[in-house]
Design brief:
about 300 residues, alpha/beta, TIM Barrel, 8-stranded parallel beta barrel
């Protein structure tokens, strides 16, 4: 794995801010300077955006806007279809965008293989792993780190898909974007998974739930982050941590847990989330992360 993963950064995912402006039918791109200033004020090193595959120059503009705010480009996230005949074209598009991102100073891509409405077959999982291997090798040549992000579906059936993604790929260039809350949601022990795969982890995605309801700030809850942090300290992890706050509407068709405000705040349906509230939520989350992880 590239030694570019050895720097330790703490960032915030764009998702919460994107949801905030999208609920107002406003362009997220038009508010990047505000978002990045808010992230900087909340104490973060970077904001992880979404890799634009169709218009790669937007990733360059995203990096430039971060630098103007005193942040730095670190990682981008992407969902790409890798298990079927569409994979070769998707990979080519991803690698073309990645080259431009590398030139803009990004260090990593956290990639989630696109899911479907059923379990993938063994042949599809094998094809997906082959695709991840190719992507990892090519990104490594660009001195970019690949982290494969795992959500709930990959943890089902004994974590069949997650294990396939890791067992069938070369650890030298395919890493793991470790997401404890999604593991918990899928019925997997985050600590046991960390112990098993700690040497594959290149990045973390940090979110919290209480009684399986997302919180809009990081707090003590379903995921025992203190235990995870102690294990990480013992193994001297050096990589990026991305705090991802998000809102999921009650009764959402995707079955994701809904967010819930702090106990001393009124519950919200998400409509009253503004930039000031999000900045404060991220500031409190940054303080919590620093207290627990010492970073």
């Amino acid at each position: 794995m590239s030694d570019r993963a050895t720097a330790k950064f703490v960032g915030a995912q764009l998702l919460a801010w994107a949801e905030c402006f999208q609920r107002r039918d406003q362009s997220v791109a038009a508010h990047l300077d505000e978002i990045f200033a808010a992230a900087r004020a909340a104490g973060y090193d970077y904001v992880e955006g979404f890799l634009d595959l169709d218009f790669p120059q937007n990733n360059v503009r995203f990096a430039a806007a971060m630098r103007r705010a005193g942040l730095r480009p670190v990682s981008l996230s992407a969902d790409v279809r890798l298990h079927d005949a569409e994979a070769p074209a998707a990979i080519d598009k991803l690698l073309a965008a990645a080259k431009i991102c590398r030139e803009s100073g990004y260090l990593a891509i956290n990639l989630h293989p696109e899911t479907i409405d059923r379990d993938k077959t063994d042949d599809e999982l094998r094809a997906q792993a082959d695709a991840l291997d190719r992507i990892g090798r090519e990104l490594n040549r660009l001195e970019l780190v690949l982290g494969v992000h795992t959500q709930q579906i990959e943890t089902q059936h004994g974590a069949r898909e997650m294990r396939s993604n890791l067992r069938r790929t070369d650890p030298a260039h395919v890493g793991l974007c470790f997401d404890p809350q999604w593991l918990y949601r899928g019925g997997r022990s985050p600590l046991a998974t960390l112990r098993e795969y700690h040497d594959r982890i290149v990045s973390w995605r940090i979110r919290q739930s209480v009684s399986n309801e997302w919180r809009q700030t990081l707090v003590d809850g379903d995921v025992d982050y203190a235990s995870l942090a102690r294990f990480q300290a013992e193994h001297q992890f050096r990589g990026s941590y991305t705090v991802e706050l998000a809102y999921a509407a009650k009764g959402a068709a995707d079955g994701k847990p809904r967010a819930k405000s702090e106990d001393n705040r009124a519950a919200t349906d998400g409509a009253d989330q503004d930039l000031a509230t999000l900045t404060e939520n991220h500031r409190q989350s940054r303080e919590y992360f620093r207290k627990v992880f010492g970073v």
